[in-house]
Specification:
about 240 residues; Rossmann fold; two-stranded antiparallel sheet; 7 strands; about 50% helix; about 10% strand; EC 6.3.4.20; 7-cyano-7-deazaguanine synthase; QueC
Length: about 240
């Protein structure tokens, strides 16, 4: 485990696989950790309803995590959903658009999330912003790129006269490695918690618990999660002694 840092972190925590893994990562690296979630009218709003119980279960996984985990902030960003016309904010079939991006892309979402998170962090005296952005296993969203996050960090620091640091632990790893990171951080207990108690499906379906977790099994989020889990399990079996 890396050396502990005394400065505080604010984690963008949706209640999904990636943000839960990032929260565990932050709890392993920082002595003070708070969480922030956003209600922007997403179709998969079920993720928001899971967050309180998920946070409590994370606390029970480790005494040190329980000690470090502080306030949770849930922010109403309904305006973003009102402005957006996407498959994540409307009852629309998921499809590719003429610009080469899937219609699950919500323009400005991560930019706004980070800006609001920085505003809360400013008030709370936290200096690190942690997000689950990734440009390895992703849908081509431009606001998930490392270049975007680095530029945004610069802008936030200039605009707020602060020294914020944006951390993206998943930026260069795929979904199988995300499962592996969870196993390294919290063992099988965290893997099982992510599998059964987080939500990633774009359509918000939780009728069936698959081997990799709940979801429709067909949307891009479910496909990535399922493929990553299968690769993760295969890797574990390969490494296991006969």
């Amino acid at each position: 485990m890396d050396q502990q840092h005394t400065n505080g972190a604010l984690v963008l925590f949706s209640g999904g696989q990636d943000s839960t893994t990032c929260l565990a990562w932050a709890l392993a690296h920082y002595t003070t950790v708070e969480t922030i979630g956003f209600d922007y009218g997403q179709r998969h709003a079920v993720e928001l309803s899971l967050r309180p119980a998920l946070l409590q279960k994370l606390r029970r996984l480790s005494p040190s995590w329980n000690e470090r985990l502080g306030m949770d902030h849930l922010i109403d960003l309904a305006l973003l959903g009102t402005l957006s016309d996407t498959a994540l904010t409307r009852e629309t079939e998921i499809a590719m658009q003429a610009n080469g991006l899937p219609n699950t892309f919500v323009p400005g979402r991560n930019l706004l999330f980070m800006m609001v998170a920085a505003t809360v962090a400013y008030r709370r005296g936290l200096t690190v912003l942690v997000g689950g952005m990734c440009e390895t296993d992703f849908s081509g969203y431009p606001d998930c790129r490392n270049e975007t996050m680095q530029s945004l960090q610069n802008t936030l620091n200039l605009g707020m006269a602060q020294d914020f640091k944006i951390e993206t632990p998943l930026m260069w790893i795929d979904k199988a490695q995300t499962w592996q990171l969870a196993a390294q951080l919290g063992g099988q207990a965290l893997v099982d918690l992510i599998r059964a108690d987080t939500h990633t499906c774009y359509l918000g379906q939780r009728d069936e618990l698959h081997e990799w977790g709940y979801g429709c099994g067909q949307c891009p989020a479910c496909t990535l999660r399922a493929q990553g889990y299968a690769k993760f399990i295969s890797g574990q079996q390969t490494q296991s002694p006969d």
